[in-house]
Design a protein that fits this description.
By secondary structure, this protein is α/β, with parallel strands linked by helices. Helices cover about 50% and strands about 15% of the residues. Helix 1 runs antiparallel to helix 2, helix 6 runs parallel beside helix 8 and helix 10 crosses helix 11. InterPro entries: Acetyl_CoA_COase_a_su, ClpP/crotonase-like_dom_sf, COA_CT_C.
Length: about 325
Amino acid sequence: MAGELEFEKPVTELRKKISELREYTKNTDMDFSSEIEKLEIRLEKLEKDIYENIKPWDRVQIARHPQRPTTLDYIAHLFTDFFECHGDRVYGDDEAIVGGIAKFHGLPVTVIGHQRGKDTKENIRRNFGMPHPEGYRKALRLMKQADKFKRPIICFIDTKGAYPGKAAEERGQSEAIARNLFEMAGLRVPVVCVVIGEGGSGGALALGVGNHLHMLENSTYSVISPEGAASILWRDAALAKKAAETMKITAPDLKKLGVIDEIIPETRGGAHRDLVYQAEAIRETLKTSLLELTKLSEEELVNQRYKKYKLIGENPSLNEYIGVN
C-alpha cells in the first residue's frame, strides 16, 4: 500500500484479507460472510489497539507522511476568496511560504503557512517546505498589513526548519526569524497558529508566536528533529526513536507542558486519510479561537500573548513530568 507506515502493517494486511474474501465471495457461489464479519470485528479491535496507543516515533512518521494535507489544501477547504500575495519587497518570492487575504465565514483574515510539495518536482520548487529569509519577510509583510487593516491572522506551521544553506545565511536567515518573533509579539490583532505537520526549530517558531497555538493530534513541534537530537546526545542518528520519546515533541506531551492550547483530533491513521474531516475539525477550532479573541481589545491581545509565553514552564508539576529533580 502506497504511503504505508511500519506500525500500520498489521491493519493493512487484515484489510487486504477482508477485501480479498469479499471479492472471492462476489465472483463465486461460496459464502464467506461469517468469516468476513469475524475479521471485521478483529480489524476494529486491532485499529483501536494500534491507533489509541500510538508512540511518539509513530506520530513523527505520520507528521512526515508524503500525502499529509498541506497549507494550500486546508486553505481550499476552509476559506473563500483567497488571494495569494507574493514577494517580500526586498529580495524576491519564496514558495516555501504561502500567504494572502481570504474570508473565514465572511470575516476578512490573513492566512500564512509553510508549503511543502506534493511530488519531487514541486518539493524542489518549494524547497521541501524549508523557507529562505525572503519567505519570513514575506510573512512579516503580510502580518503588518493585517495589523494595519485589523484583520486576524491565521498561521499554518509545517516545516522541518528554516533552510540552513549558505545563500540563506548570507541574506540574513537568523535576523529574519528573530524579527518575526519580535514583531509577532506586538501585533494588535488576533493571531491563531496551527501546527499541521512538522514544527521544526526556529523555522516553525517564526510563524508560531500567537494568542492561541493549536496542534493536530499527530503533528510534532520541537527545537530539533529526533535524528538531529540523537546525533548530538548519543552520536547516533539511528537512536531517533528514543530521542522522540525523550524530547516530548508530540501534541499530548506539549499540551501537558502548557506549550499548546488545544489538540485537534485526527481521523484514525492520520489527516491524510480524510482531508474533509480534518479541515472541518480545524474549522471548529478556528471558529472558537476567533470568537474568543475578537472580543479582546488591542491592548488585551498583546498582554494575553505576553502572559501566554511567560507562563510556559511555570507549571509546578513540569519538572516532575520531564524527569528533572
